[in-house]
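Sanity check

After download, print the first record. It should look like this:
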Amino acid sequence: MARRRAGSGEASSGQRDPRNLAERNGGATRDRRRCDRHAVGLINLQFRDDHVATLAYRVFPASRGQGFASRAVRLVTSWAFRDIGLTSLLLEIDEANDASLKVAEKCQFGPVDTRTELASNGARHTTLVFARQRP
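Expected structure tokens:
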């Protein structure tokens, strides 16, 4: 969750190159609270191409329910559109993850797809895909 500033990743055109940023930062940054400096979770961008990335995050159990996920998603979304130049961000959410479904809604991501897969034990697993386009 983006408290630390990522490396510049400048491309020769002067624009930020998302592939370079991902390599420099391992795709992940940490969010640290100002008051006690402990990590509350993880967030990263998984680039599909130069214009689209999937945003993935996790809030550690002790920090859940405090708005960290929504805040981090909003911050990284703004940064990705403004500084990296992405045109679309995706969230892939397990249908049973009510907290992440609320994050998608709060952060203005809209539903675009549903994927259902069968596990080896025959159980069904459904993932809901949400997207937000650059304004």
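If your output differs, re-run the checksum step. Summary of this record's structure: The helical segments are 18-25, 68-84, 98-106.
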